[in-house]
Amino acid sequence: MPLKTKATSVGRKPLPKTPTGIRGLDEITGGGLPTGRPTLICGAAGCGKTLFAAEFIVRGATEHGEPGVFIAFEEKAEELAINVASLGFDLAKLQKDGLVRIDHVYIDKSEIEETGEYDLDGLFIRLGYAIDSIGAKRVVLDTIENLFSGLSNQAILRAELRRLFGWLKDKGVTAVITGEKGEGTLTRQGLEEYVSDCVILLDHRVANQISTRLLRIVKYRGSVHGTNEYPFLIDEDGISVLPITSLMLNANVSSQRISSGIPALDKMLGGKGFFRGSSILVSGTAGTGKTSIAAVFANESCRRKERCLYFAFEESPQQIVRNMLSIGIDLKQHIDKGLLEMHAARPTLNGLEMHLVAIHKHIKRFKPRAVILDPITNLVTIGSISEVKSMLIRLIDFLQTEQITVMFTALSLNTVVNEQTDEGVSSLVDAWLLVRDLESNGERNRGLYIMKSRGMKHSNQVREFVINDSGVSLVDVYLGPDGVLTGSAREAQQLSEATGEVLRSHAINRKDIEIQRKRKVLEAKIASLQEEFESVQDELNKSYIEENIRKEIQEKNRRQLIQNRHSKNTGNGKSK
């Protein structure tokens, strides 16, 4: 995090600062070097002092509109221009445009005779003319030892140094003065660091045959500043310094969820996947598919039209792209579209700090939403477990601040040391996926389970991890009579159960047919009985109707007979 200089009381103003344009340095210094004051850049040969000074001048002229003067006491202007051309600095054009002026002052100590009247008036005249000719705001003197190489009188030396630094302040230019490191002192004379307002020490160390460049701000009058040693990188783009990230653990967090690229794994993670900006560790023994999981995650990120940065410490990008085609993942299409960028290097190429600087620089340039490091355990070859853990803490802090999701892969070995390594790494991350070998029935299969996933509900079940031509997938837990089954045992048990299901279905179908047949027979019998019943009922009804008709006829005949008889009796009475 950048260090900020602010007023601590009413009426107190922050120290004016001039941005260097060097990536990372302005964050450490809280804005740059002190404006209008001299800054001493000291260090041993080959640590990057001249390049630091040249970049300070070039960045000022090209990015901040501040012309600069470079006074060289060792290299000629042509040599300096050639040396920095590989970094993309065109000093010839800048001189032609009047933005930079380079002046080589040749001093041979064998031609200098020390007298009491020795002074720097000649240099002041020459430097003053160069400053006024282009209206320079920045000045570089490289290196100061050559200016005083013929002097041994400390009194004269101290007086002239003070005069030089005072003259630069009076001119109002922001000056960078380089100096070589002495025995037990920051510079050979041991005086420059006391009269400088800001002192920056560059160091170039070699440990275990691996070199690391480090920068430290020894003092900075009138301003707070970072005091740690900061790794810096010199490459084709110049100098990049990696600031120490915040140790306050106050980075913003996101509740947004992103897919892992494996639907079944997302389901195990509450159905939504990982938190954006979180850190994920995928660990397992060799051949368990860690790189495949990382490639699927990268592929899914690119499918969302989000940039992904892939750092490989074991395989080349071409090898990874080829291997992933065998499981149906085409990473090259994302590389061609500019969504995926892959960088591969052996860990022994640089020290841990330099790897961290390189990763930091690539992230700042490419601005990805997801980062993959595969595998981080290879870094142990160039540093101890505690050093690797320290590096990863700083990387995770930086990525969390930038809201970048990071996935690490780690190789596990069946040793006590490895278990400690895994724990040291896994304690840093938000989610930990463990892929293990499951050996049974004479074959090896893969099992995946979630060791932890902070802030979300997640499954505690083991899933069989399958890699085939169509990609990677997780098979649901299958419980057989003897426990969890995987591979051919699972397939055999599933086939057996499927066969039994088919036989049961066939038996049920035969029973259904027999039942239907019996139903039809019974229904036929019922229909026959129903017809027989209706026939009997008709017969009974017929007899009943005939009996009623007979009774009606008999009753009618009886009434008719009675009537006839009555009629006869009445007729007989009249005749009498």
Written account of the structure:
It is an enzyme of class 2 (transferase). It holds the Pfam family ATPase. This is non-specific serine/threonine protein kinase. This protein is an alpha/beta fold. It folds into 3 domains: 225 residues, Rossmann fold; 220 residues, Rossmann fold (3-Layer(aba) Sandwich), CATH 3.40.50.300; 47 residues. It contains 16 helices and 24 strands. The chain has a 9-stranded mixed sheet with strand order 5-4-6-7-3-8-9-10-11, with helices on both faces. Strands 16-15-17-18-14-19-20-21-22 form a 9-stranded mixed sheet, with helices on both faces. Strands 1-2 form a two-stranded antiparallel sheet. Helix 13 runs parallel beside helix 14. The longest helix is centred in the C-terminal third of the chain and has 89 residues. It is elongated and about 190 Å long.
How would you concisely characterize the structure shown here?
The protein has 576 residues and is of the alpha/beta class. It contains 16 helices and 24 strands. The chain folds into 3 domains: 225 residues, Rossmann fold, CATH 3.40.50; 220 residues, 3-Layer(aba) Sandwich (Rossmann fold), CATH 3.40.50.300; 47 residues.
